[in-house]
Amino acid sequence: MKAKSVLIAITLSALGACTNVSQGGYYWGAYSPTYFEMVKNPSEETEAKRLEALTDIIDTSLEQDLRVPPGVYAERGMMYLEQDQALAMRDFQAEMESYPESKPFIERIVSRYTNQ
Amino acid sequence: MSLIKRLSVVISFCLIASCETLETKQEAFPSFYDENRNPVSMVIVPAINQTAAADAGELVSATLAQPFADNGYYVLPLPIVSQIFQAEGVVDGQQTLGLSGELFQRVFGADTVLYVTVDQWETNYVILAANVTVGMSYVLRSTDTDEVLWSYRAQQVVDTSADSSGFILADIIMTAVQTAVTDYLPIAYQVNSMAVATLPYGKYHPLVGADGEAGVISARLKQEAVDELGQ
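YS: structure for the whole thing
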């Protein structure tokens, strides 16, 4: 078990050489700065930037075979809710698949905010 | 070794270490290494702001998801969580202190609740010197048993004093300028890192369970955070 962990750690550090992978094994991209901007200056522009950043995180993670960080799919799902419920549902599903412990919460959001 | 020699070694060690009790992660936070009790998910309530800076709480709240997620925990999506709290009129974590773990479980389905208190967010001027100080306390509580699983207090002081130019007025101005432009955020990130370094790895971390012997954790700082929350 320990050898496996060491191997995983080594693989991750090797991966780190390709992209900005954190020690927890995630690609965060512009997660923090875009969140700040959105909180400090809520506007269509900062929201659009946020959506862009989330999509970048998801796409890059899938490309690099990394797990998408907690909450990223769910947050994008919330942003898609108004325009396209199908897209939103796909993201919520993905969140629950990546993180089974998110199920109670995601199911709650889905029933609260959609007509599913 | 003679008694006197032994005594003096103990005394000098005590003086050096300020009689700090230092523990490893497993000694300080045993529940994480128990398969039946180790938490997987956490809901982070809005930061408790005890400073004079009105926006400190909001700013700090925005920094928390990443470091805790990186430590291997499923952190519930912060923007959605804060929307829910806001809808209930909760803007400061202080308002949630009386709530039972059972309620958090029901609403969020999370194993734990994280309370972060910002108690220092300030610039200090002392004659020609200045510094920016950020201090925060973190308490992680189980929603099952309401017990505190992890706690820590961390603080970072950044010296923003100007290098002496030989001209006092210039020094004072330079210090003021450097202090004014010092962004609190990077310091907040550092404080988060210092605290999270004491937190055992969670389920999603590559090295989960292997860090029991790691960490030099001050029992005093661990207790200070709990005392500060007053629970």
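YS: worth flagging: Chain B has a mean pLDDT of 87.
IM: good catch. Also Chain B touches chain A through 32 residues (CB under 8 Å).
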